[in-house]
Amino acid sequence: MNANGNLVEARNLKKFFPVHTHFFSRAKTFVQAVVGVNLSIRRGETLGLVGESGCGKSTLGRLILRLEEPTEGQIFFENEDILQYDSERLRQLRREMQIIFQDPYSSLNPRKTVGSIIGEPLIIHRMGTKKEREERVLKLLEVVGLRPEHINRYPHEFSGGQRQRIGIARALALNPKLIIADEPVSALDVSIQAQVLNLLEDLQGEFHLTYLFIAHDLSVVEHISDRVAVMHLGRIAELAQSEELYRDPKHPYTQALLSANPVPDPTLERQRIILQGEVPSPINPPSGCNFHTRCPFKFEPCPKEVPQFKEIEPNHWVACYLYGPNE
Amino acid sequence: MVGENSYLLKIRNLHTYFFTDEGVAKAVDGVDLELEEGGTLGLVGESGCGKTVTALSIMRLIPEPPGKIVNGEISFDGSNLLTLSEAEMRKIRGRSISMIFQEPMTSLNPVFQIGDQISEVLRLHEGMSRREAWNRSVEMLRMVGIPSPERRIFEYPHQLSGGMRQRAMIAMALACSPKLMIADEPTTALDVTIQAQILELINHLQKGKGMSVILITHNLGVIAETARKVAVMYAGRIVEYTGVRSIFGTPKHPYTQGLLKSIPRLDADHIRKEKLEAIPGLVPSLLDLPKGCKFSNRCKYVFDRCAEEPSLIETASGHLVRCWLYE
After folding, report:
1. What is the pLDDT of residues B116-156, one digit of tens each?
2. How far apart are CA A257 and CA A291, in angstroms?
3. Is B289 exposed, middle or buried (0-12, 13-18, 19+ CB in 10 A)?
4. Rounded to 5°, angle at Cα B13 from B9 and B18
């Protein structure tokens, strides 16, 4: 058990994807998906990871699971360096960490029954007898709010929200410690989102789960997370307690994101920060602070060097020269 | 109070059905709507509620078979669109009424340059020459905020980002200065900062040209920020219809109330992490609708009167609700 209560620790994590211009050519350019991320996930918490498309949040989630191998950096799970694991040990690790995917339509094998989908992890990890596995699957169906007779149905017979429940049941099958939820409700209708979010919260309490909740919807992330990290173009721009981030966003990008988020209150007079220009490409990110090309507060040091990620108030971290120069 | 004759668009008793092997799906089942010149009507609802089919009915783009507009009247600028010939309708589509769709990648033709796609509209409706149309297209792209339009006009949809493609589609939709623009989930597929830009653009262009807009979305935040009047749809019917402030300030239909309670909010006056109040159950299949009030099987206020389908009841001035609670 780790002294500081961190279940996961990522240190200086980098992931670059090569861009091949022709099928056989050597890559000369890279998509810099994750660039030097330091992040820890505390046991029992829900850490929200928010950012726009292309910011690297999904890649970061996959790196932690070792579904992608990092280009550089280290990942610790319960204080052990999981990048050193051989395939057998890695397979055991997979019992502890699971993932729920965004698209309930493509993340379930359409040719398998629900029972078979949820039971598959148990078979792969050789857990229990056939009868025990079936009992576990039935229990999991109940836990996610589906019915026993659903066990023999196929994914296409279910709605998006129900399919997401199946995905959640599958993620719970092995009793993991950590669940990475990659945009689990984005594809769902508003009223179903609420059902699934409530379910995830209930399950966290019941099964002592730790969540990394990846999303682009700020309201959803704020609601479910204890702490929130904001990513921009492969780096973490800001990290704070959820209420603190929304009450007092420090990074100009966080401020712009919050300002852009439409609020369901027509009486609110809002001073909107509309960012100028396009989201820069991760293939050719801006120099220095990667937000400076769109930042309304850009000044002299910004294009020169990457700002340090510093704790400027207790538990509130930012990477921005507005809060002081690099040390 | 606006008189009956000064509406730009008036829909009365619209019924659009789809005749399938499994039965008749009554996608739009008795819809009345009106829109004044320069107004913005928000059409809200979740998947399957009929909002897109309503829009496609206005545009007469319902595939026949299996669809068919079986009843109703859509008067636009003096004519009943449902009685026009296809040739007459083609003169209206893209010229007096235009539409922008949710997924810009699938609604733009991937094998034609952006310039060609905008020019096509101009050459068809305004009889412009190739050169004139091309030059005007550059101006349109500039107007919608695409930088270096004289260069980008040669690009194909896949070379543009999502936000750019949406702008290109807006350029196409506005090329002939339509009186009415129908925007079907125009920003759902876009990042929140780009969404803010696009909504701002639509707002700005609307004011500049005095255009009327029907904005279709399931995002209540977007509705609050852009619509003046709001119609909430459920199972092919309008269940509540009033001004935007009333919808949020005094929602009357249990479904509207349920939707508002089920969304996580970033505004100050709520207790964070309080459980979301989800609407139980699922939207019914159009092939298997409940008898009586279509929301009755999910409504917490259901009582014996609900066995009969309610009509729209006027509660306060201009606030219509389809619910027996207000009889």
Report:
1. 999 999 999 989 999 999 999 999 998 888 888 998 899 99
2. 13
3. middle
4. 105
Pick A194's closest partner by Cβ from B162, B194, B278: B278
The question of ipTM being above 0.85 is answered as: no
- Measured between alpha carbons, how far is B247 from B253 in angstroms, rounded to an integer? 9
Beta-carbon separation of A201 and B191 below 8 A: no
Read off the pLDDT band of A2 (50, 70, 90): very low
Which amino acid type is present at position B130?
R
Which backbone phi and psi does B189 adopt, to 5 degrees? -85, 5
Question: Among residues B291, B260, B192, which one has the least CA distance to residue B44?
Answer: B260
Yes or no, beta carbons of A222 and B272 under 8 Å apart: yes
Residues of A with CB below 8 A from B234's CB?
A: none
DSSP H helical segments within chain B, as ranges? 51-58, 86-92, 104-107, 114-126, 130-143, 149-152, 162-174, 192-209, 220-226, 244-249, 254-262
- Residues in chain A with CB shorter than 8 Å from the CB of B188 are none
Concatenate the DSSP letters of all residues of A150-219 into one string.
GGG--GGGS-HHHHHHHHHHHHHTT--SEEEEESTTTTS-HHHHHHHHHHHHHHHHHHT-EEEEEES-HH
Q: What is the per-residue pLDDT for B271?
A: 52
pTM of the model: 0.86
The whole-angstrom separation of Cα B262 and Cα A191 is: 6
How far apart CA B118 and CA B314 sit, in angstroms, is: 44
d(Cα B205, Cα A197) in Å, to the nearest integer?
Answer: 38
Tokens of B285: 């299949």
Percent of chain A at pLDDT > 90 equals 69
Taking an 8 Å cut-off on Cβ atoms, the answer to whether B266 and A159 are in contact is: no
Instruction: State the Cα–Cα distance between residues B259 and B252, nearest whole angstrom.
Output: 11
pLDDT of B249 > 50? The answer is yes
**Do residue A266 and residue B264 have CB atoms under 8 angstroms apart?**
no
Give the Cα separation of A55 and A50 in Å (integer): 9
> Side chain identity at A162, as an amino acid letter?
Q
CA distance A107 to B141: 38
A295 burial (CB, 10 Å; 0-12 / 13-18 / 19+) is buried
Joined together, the tokens standing for residue B117 give 């796609």
pLDDT in tens, A198-214: 999 999 999 999 999 99
Residues 27-46 of B with CB under 8 A from A: 46
| 3-class secondary structure, B175 | coil
Other Cβ atoms less than 10 A from the Cβ of A49: the count is 29
What is the pLDDT confidence band of residue B67, given thresholds at 50, 70 and 90? very high
Contacts of B221 in chain A (CB under 8 A): 219, 261-264
| Residues B46 and B283 sit within 8 Å (Cβ to Cβ) | yes
Sequence-separated contacts (24+) of A86-90 with Cβ below 8 Å: A90/A66
Residue of chain A minimizing CA distance to B250: A265
B203 touches chain A (CB under 8 A): no
Say yes or no for a CB contact (<8 Å) between A263 and B224.
yes
For residue B22 the two structure tokens come to 């499994």
The Cα B231–Cα B320 span in angstroms is 9
